[in-house]
Design a protein that fits this description.
single chain; about 100 residues; mainly beta; SH3 type barrels; six-stranded antiparallel β-sheet; two-stranded antiparallel ribbon; 10 strands; about 0% helix; elongated
Length: about 100
């Protein structure tokens, strides 16, 4: 079970964007996630009239390693570590390690 999923609100805990919050747009692979507004890079894009691309310099969100982000805990208003707990009916759910609350997602 993945501890960080698409749609989760995260906080960057290390790197040049430390402290920024954003939403996970997608998981690139097992180790990297694409977060909205985090790890932006300037990319030079060639014009392509067939696709309707104007070209120029665009800001693009780049993937960030999963070890540099943590899930945002709305109860404590801080980043929190996540654990996995099995319920009585056999389902596995994500819980915050700090206060044991379920992750809402």
């Amino acid at each position: 079970m993945e501890k960080i999923r698409k749609g989760d609100e995260i906080v960057v805990i290390s790197g040049k964007d430390k402290g920024k919050r954003g939403t996970v747009l997608r998981r690139v692979d097992d180790e990297r996630v694409l977060v909205e507004g985090v790890n932006r890079a300037k990319k030079h894009v060639k014009p392509n009239p067939v696709k309707g691309v104007a070209g120029g310099i665009v800001d693009k969100d780049m993937p960030i390693h999963i070890s540099n982000v943590a899930l945002f805990n709305p109860a404590t208003k801080k980043a929190g570590r996540v654990g996995i707990k099995a319920l009585e009916d056999g389902r596995k759910v994500r819980v915050f390690k700090s206060n044991g609350e379920l992750v809402n997602a």
